[in-house]
Write a structure and sequence with these properties.
Blueprint (H helix, E strand, L loop, with lengths): L9 E9 L3 E7 L8 H4 L7 E7 L2 E6 L2 E4 L7 E7 L4 E6 L5 E7 L6 E7 L5 E4 L5 E2 L11
Antiparallel strand pairs: 1-6, 1-10, 1-11, 2-3, 2-9, 3-4, 4-5, 6-7, 7-8
Pfam families: SPRY
Protein name: B30.2/SPRY domain-containing protein
Keywords: Metal-binding, Zinc, Zinc-finger
């Protein structure tokens, strides 16, 4: 989990994913990293929003609900958060930007970028040195 929180405005970060089982998303700081899977894993609770790859393909997860995405091999993922609008969007950022999935929620706490690696050989590398926000350049993102 990143130490910087997202609680004002709009933010964008990119991550490189490696291996089957790499997941990236946002969660509240109150997540219990040592708790039960339903509350500590970013794919299984109602206070995390993420996307990632498993043996069956590329999926989005929130509140334990898995949704298949129209994507095969996403290696560079864009994550865009508009905190005030309650929006979390995920993009395939390897080529022309293409939105993969969007969530809408009423955020009740600041969010943190986080990753979950289900296998030892997985890796997630945040590409941006720091989160991009309205004052330090947001990319032009497609909405459909």
């Amino acid at each position: 989990m990143t130490s910087d929180s997202i609680y004002l405005g709009r933010h964008y970060v990119e991550a490189e994913l490696s291996g089957e089982g790499a997941h990236v998303g946002v969660t509240y700081k109150s997540i219990d990293p040592k708790g039960e899977q339903s509350t500590s894993c970013i794919t299984g609770n109602d206070f995390s929003w993420c996307v990632g790859r498993n043996s069956r393909g590329f999926f989005a997860w929130h509140a334990g609900v898995e949704e298949a995405l129209d994507a095969t091999d996403v290696t560079r993922l864009g994550l865009y958060v508009d905190f005030h609008r309650g929006s979390v969007s995920f993009y395939d950022a390897a080529g022309p930007m293409r939105r993969l999935h969007n969530y809408t929620a009423d955020f009740i706490e600041p969010l943190h970028i986080t990753a979950w690696l289900s296998k030892k050989d997985n890796a997630v590398h945040l590409v941006n040195d720091k989160l991009c926000n309205e004052t330090n350049h947001l990319p032009s993102l497609p909405v459909c």
